């Protein structure tokens, strides 16, 4: 993996790594504040996850992204098998390795005995799979992207794993992955002659969809609970029970004021105790209450900085493969953060998705750090690298010694 690889230390994006570590640190501070009374092992597990994530990012930073991308077919097949395993293998069939359901969602593969072990989300691997496979397809079909046959093939390849995610059901992850896919093919050279007509069709269809689901028969195309979540955002006064989580989340953010209860040493009861899943999907409400406007703004600024650095890496990437992968990673993380925060502040319908690097959950955390590691490697190999400079490291030379 390191043979004949030369990286410029000056091109290592310490600012990118520092940004995500700061986000994780904020998440740890908030997680400790909201779990200390319950005395759970959640906080300790998250610390281990962050440490492991940093290690993974550093390891992937020095693994050539082109080598990783070469295994896109194997990664695609593995991801499909994991998604199908999650869907069809029950606890009765495999007591220590089975697809786990929570309420109506079947999104996890449980490893270990009941009451112990750990849960893995195959949909997190789908995010990485889509980015790598699509980047390779854009290279393979370069110059042919605007053909209907090419778009059909790409849509079929990418659409199958996305459909499996949607079926779990996991609508929020499906939306984020789909938008990432659309951004990548646009950057890949999709003609405006296709984009403009497509948008002119999609917009009125979406408006029609919003009208349709508000009718009494509007459950024919989406699940009842999905329809009610959309309607609760459009007409919150008619769905007080469904808006309970989001209303309390906004109240918690408001109660934090400018500097937050944790910073000011306020020991008053926390409103986030009335916010279900506050440690994961709604952790931004805890950020607002504990760290106030300052802490919330800092989180948003760090995500903006992450996006800017990632786009800079994409622009300076030494080849199109690196550019497409970097764009995909930047889009995925930014969109996920936008959707999460948008849900918490009632800008979007309530749909569960973790806030990258802050939310509790090892599958999402480790996958995101892996993506950051790949970004770092793309940055190390950018087109400005001087192979004769003093900061140049030839890993091939060290490889021969061993």
Question: Could you please describe the fold and organization of this structure?
Answer:
- By secondary structure, the protein is mostly helical.
- It has one domain.
- Helices cover 63% and strands 5% of the residues.
- The protein has 15 helices and five strands.
- It has helices spanning 14-35, 42-61, 65-70, 72-88, 122-140, 148-167, 171-187, 192-213, 224-234, 244-255, 261-264, 283-316, 320-344, 362-380, 395-401, and strands spanning 6-8, 97-102, 105-111, 118-120, 392-394.
- A three-stranded antiparallel sheet has the order 2-3-4, with helices on one face. It has a two-stranded antiparallel sheet with strand order 1-5.
- β2 and β3 form a beta hairpin.
- α4 (72-88) packs antiparallel against α5 (122-140).
- The longest helix is centred in the last third of the chain and has 34 residues, at 283-316.
- The relative contact order is 0.17.
- Mean pLDDT is 84; it is low at 387-402.
Topology overview:
Blueprint: E1 6-8, H1 14-35, H2 42-61, H3 65-70, H4 72-88, E2 97-102, E3 105-111, E4 118-120, H5 122-140, H6 148-167, H7 171-187, H8 192-213, H9 224-234, H10 244-255, H11 261-264, H12 283-316, H13 320-344, H14 362-380, E5 392-394, H15 395-401
Antiparallel strand pairs: 1-5, 2-3, 3-4
């Amino acid at each position: 993996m390191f043979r004949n690889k030369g990286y410029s230390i000056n091109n290592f994006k310490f600012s990118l790594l520092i940004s995500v570590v700061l986000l994780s640190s904020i998440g740890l501070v908030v997680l400790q504040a909201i779990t200390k009374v319950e005395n759970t092992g959640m906080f300790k597990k998250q610390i281990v996850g962050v440490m492991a994530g940093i290690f993974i990012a550093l390891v992937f930073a020095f693994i050539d992204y082109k080598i990783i991308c070469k295994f896109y077919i194997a990664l695609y097949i593995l991801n499909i098998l994991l998604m199908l395993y999650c869907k069809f293998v029950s606890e009765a069939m495999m007591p220590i390795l089975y697809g786990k359901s929570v309420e109506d969602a079947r999104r996890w593969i449980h490893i270990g005995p009941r009451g112990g072990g750990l849960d893995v989300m195959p949909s997190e691997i789908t995010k990485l799979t889509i980015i790598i496979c699509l980047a390779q397809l854009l290279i393979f079909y370069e110059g042919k992207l605007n053909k209907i046959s090419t778009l059909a093939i790409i849509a079929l390849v990418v659409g199958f794993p996305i459909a499996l995610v949607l079926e779990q059901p996991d609508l929020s992850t499906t939306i984020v992955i789909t938008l990432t896919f659309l951004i990548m093919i646009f950057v890949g050279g999709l003609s405006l002659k296709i984009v403009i007509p497509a948008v002119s069709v999609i917009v009125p269809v979406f408006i029609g969809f919003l009208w349709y689901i508000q009718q009494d028969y509007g459950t024919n195309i989406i699940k009842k609970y999905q329809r009610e979540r959309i309607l609760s955002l459009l007409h919150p006064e008619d769905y007080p029970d469904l808006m309970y989580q989001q209303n309390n989340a906004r109240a918690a953010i408001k109660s934090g004021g400018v500097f937050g209860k944790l910073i000011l040493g306020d020991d008053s009861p926390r409103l986030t105790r009335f916010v279900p899943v506050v440690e994961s999907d709604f952790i931004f409400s805890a950020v607002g209450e504990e760290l106030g406007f300052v802490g919330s703004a800092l989180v948003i600024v760090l995500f903006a900085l992450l996006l800017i650095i990632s786009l800079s890496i994409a622009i300076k990437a030494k080849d199109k493969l690196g550019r497409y992968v970097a764009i995909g990673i930047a889009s995925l993380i930014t969109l996920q953060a936008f959707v999460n925060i948008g849900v918490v502040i009632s800008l979007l319908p309530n749909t569960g998705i973790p806030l990258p690097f802050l939310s509790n959950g090892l599958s999402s955390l480790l996958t995101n750090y892996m993506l950051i590691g790949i970004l770092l490697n793309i940055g190390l190999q950018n087109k400005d690298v001087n192979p004769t400079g003093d900061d140049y490291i030839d890993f091939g030379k060290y490889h021969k010694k061993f």
